[in-house]
Specification:
Blueprint lengths: L1 E6 L7 H15 L3 E6 L13 H4 L10 H10 L2 E7 L7 H9 L4 H6 L3 E7 L9 H14 L3 E8 L5 H5 L3 H11 L1
Parallel strand pairs: 1-2, 1-3, 3-4, 4-5
Helix pairs in contact: 1-8
């Protein structure tokens, strides 16, 4: 299986980066091909709703790092979103990537995909991750028509040592290996 992992954290060694690393380790051990796209470290522009992509038919007006991600969004079998929780949602960096799906929506949606959400948060109230999960499910299941294959919500993970001392990295590894 070809899997694209899209991360949204601006911290290369942060809590969600560890989840991504462990998921990838498990998936690669299971024989899957991984493309990792670290949105916070790419040259990206936000969608400005100019409609160039629809009026001209040649994709987005911006020729930035989405150009290397788009073939994977279109052709890969699974998309994995990895984000720390920022004000009860995904980071702006990963949201910007999702907004830019618009330029290739029909191509991306033409091939049914599986998807996964891996998220971390400092808080652990029972409602902490609800808005993030609702948004994820609305985008991937209701709009894109993709099938959710798993969600890991790593709560009480304020700093790297918190998640290192939890079972969440192992859960991410096992999820990747189980595919």
């Amino acid at each position: 299986m070809r899997i694209t992992v899209i991360t949204g954290s601006p911290h290369k060694k942060g809590t969600s980066a560890l989840l991504a690393d462990k998921f990838i380790e498990g998936a690669e051990e299971a024989g899957h091909e991984i493309f990792r796209f670290d949105a916070a470290f790419e040259d990206l522009h936000p969608c400005k709703a100019c409609e160039h992509c629809h009026f001209k038919g040649d994709g987005c007006i911006y020729k930035d790092s989405m150009e290397k991600l788009n073939p994977h969004l279109i052709n890969d079998d699974m998309i994995v979103f990895v984000t720390p929780l920022y004000y009860f949602g995904m980071t702006a960096q990963i949201k910007m990537v999702i907004d830019r799906f618009y330029a290739h929506n029909s191509e991306i949606m033409a091939n049914k995909k599986d998807c996964i959400l891996l998220a971390t948060s400092a808080d652990g109230n029972d409602w902490t991750m609800q808005a993030l999960v609702d948004h994820y499910k609305t985008v991937v299941e209701k709009y894109m028509g993709w099938e959710d294959k798993g969600i890991i919500l790593a709560t009480y993970c304020t700093v790297r040592s918190d998640i290192e001392n939890s079972n969440y990295p192992e859960e991410a590894y096992e999820l990747g290996k189980s595919l």
